[in-house]
Write the structure tokens for this entry.
Amino acid sequence: MEQAAAAGSPAVVDCEQLVAVIGDAVIVSDPAGAITLWNAAAERMFGFTAAEAMGQSLDIIIPERQRQRHWDGYEQTMATGQTRYGHELLRVPAVHKDGHSLSIAFTVALLRGTDGAVTGIVAVVRDETARWTEERKLKRRLAELEATAAG
């Protein structure tokens, strides 16, 4: 991934450094769903250190009620080499190490080996819990005001 060099800057982006310092969680999992990359933002967001997360199933952040749906889609993606989501922003619940719920938004992309076979999936994740909570409060307030106005 090369970028045109600006005056005084390097010509090549250090992708490892980028993943390490970016504010969004970057999580990579292998074809079986085991975590193979977990950056510092993922640690902050989900509470698991990289050492705790590496090699673990994505189940550590997927609420139990969502797991079957997740794995059905994951297995289909691995079997077909295609994802329905492409560049679409997905919004789903997640779970923190301490058990509290999160609302996350993320994009996914397939990673491929030199032979074109899928080697994993990368997700770039943002915590939207505060936004989701505020939106829910506003919707409740609007419903209350509409009920008062109608009554």
Notes: The mean pLDDT is 90. Helices lie at 15-21, 40-46, 50-53, 67-80, 129-150. The CA atoms of residues 7 and 13 lie 14 Å apart. The chain has five helices and five strands.
